[in-house]
Amino acid sequence: MQTHTPTVQPVGGRLLTVDDVADLLGVPRTLVYSLARRGELPSVRIGARYIRFRTEALEAWVAQHETTAPGWQR
Questions:
Q1: How many domains does the chain have?
Q2: How confident is the model over 17-65, as pLDDT tens digits?
Q3: 11 pLDDT exceeds 90?
Q4: In the chain, how long is the greatest CA-to-CA distance?
Q5: Is the pLDDT of residue 7 over 70?
């Protein structure tokens, strides 16, 4: 009897945790949660409890928010 083991790969690469994203961006976890909750940071909801981030979406988000203008203001 053969068993079939499906190969599951995340869509678009590895999914990152909130801690991963906070470490990569050098910001607190609370900011990552806040940005995701407001829809400013692209995220993937997994059930009611988990949130993950696609590496490619995060890289695109960083590139979109990158600035070369000197003296940007708050």
A1: 1
A2: 999 999 999 999 999 999 999 999 999 999 999 999 999 999 999 999 8
A3: no
A4: 68
A5: no
- Asked whether residue 70 is domain-assigned, the answer is no
DSSP 15-58: EEPHHHHHHHHTS-HHHHHHHHHTTSS--EEETTTEEEEEHHHH
Residue 48 lies in domain: 15-62
Residue 22 lies in a domain: yes
Contact predicate 13/52, CB 8 Å: no
User: Is the CB of residue 59 less than 8 Å from the CB of residue 69?
Assistant: no
Structure tokens at 23: 């470490």
pTM, full prediction? 0.73
